[in-house]
Amino acid sequence: MVDNVTCLILAGGLGTRLGSLVKDIPKPMLKVNKRPFLEYLIYQVRLFGIKDVIICLGHKGEIIENYFSNGENYGLRIRYSKEKDLLGTAGALANAKQFINSDPFVVMNGDSFCDVDFKELLIEHRLHKASGTVVVTHMDDCSRYNCLTFDDNGAITSFNEKEEKSAHSFINGGIYVFKKTVLNFIPSMKFCSLEKDIFPKLAQCGLRIFRTCGLFIDIGIPFDLERAADYLKTFRIKDVAARI
Fold first, then answer.
1. Class of domain 6-239
2. Is 121 helix (H, G, I), strand (E, B) or coil?
3. What is the structure's pLDDT at 165?
């Protein structure tokens, strides 16, 4: 159920809020505990048996490709979708359409880590026959994040709302499952954002949440990059490596 699923990792952003830290390397290649942040995501999907990975490249993408190569050292296959111009989070998916071998498929942001059970996520997605499923996690202070709201049945009702500290604030965890028909909503070779341009449209035809209580961290600003080192110390890389 999982080992035949394609996972796309969005790694083409510029990381402008990190300034000189990303002058010479892509944001997902910033070191956390002496290994690239992106490597944690590769090990994460491998932990759950996903073996088909597409990395969507942009800024300095050749550094990522040279480091991970074809994925053989991680016990999976890695292919690369390359952008000549910035296409945004949705545009990157349209650009990689030819590489997607499964329906549904998984998408991950390359600059955030969200601890989630991919097997349970896929089961939930298929059970509800959703067009898309968004992993969400609770956040006490949403001032830095765009929150989303959903009804009692788990259907998403709104996006991109800034909220005050609230016991009911949930943020986008940066992991999604989509039916391939979702690609029909995305224009080809144009800059397009999942969060701003596509999700509001999908909310009208079956877009749901999947809650996780697991660890969430992004590396969008220097402060959180430093915190990621502590958060990811306990990640089970040795356990995954032993299985390869």
1. alpha beta
2. helix
3. 47
Inform me whether the pLDDT recorded for 87 exceeds 50: yes
Q: Which of 34, 54, 152, 153 is nearest to 101 (CA)?
A: 54
| Distance of alpha carbon 135 from alpha carbon 173, whole angstroms | 5
177 close to 122: Cβ distance less than 8 angstroms: yes
**pLDDT reported for residue 58:** 86
Whether this model's pTM surpasses 0.70: yes
Say if residue 240's pLDDT is above 60: no
Each residue of 37-69: pLDDT tens digit? 999 999 999 988 999 999 999 878 999 999 999
Can 34 be counted among the known catalytic residues? no
- CA 221 and chain centroid, separation: 17
| Domain extent listing, the chain | 6-239
Residues 6 or more apart whose CB falls under 8 angstroms from that of 34 comprise: none
In the structure encoding, which two tokens stand for residue 118, read together? Answer: 């991919």
Q: How far is it, in rounded angstroms, from Cα 235 to Cα 192?
A: 33
Q: What contacts 195, CB < 8 A, 6 or more positions away?
A: 89, 146, 159, 160, 172
Q: Cα separations (Å) of 166 from 5, 115, 161, 172?
A: 36, 22, 13, 15
Task: Write out pLDDT tens, residues 132-188.
Answer: 999 999 887 666 777 788 899 999 988 765 555 454 588 899 999 999 999 999 988
Give the whole-angstrom CA distance, residue 139 versus residue 103.
31
Pick the catalytic residue from 31, 34, 51, 162.
Answer: 162
Q: Tell me the CA end-to-end span of the chain in Å, nearest whole number.
A: 19
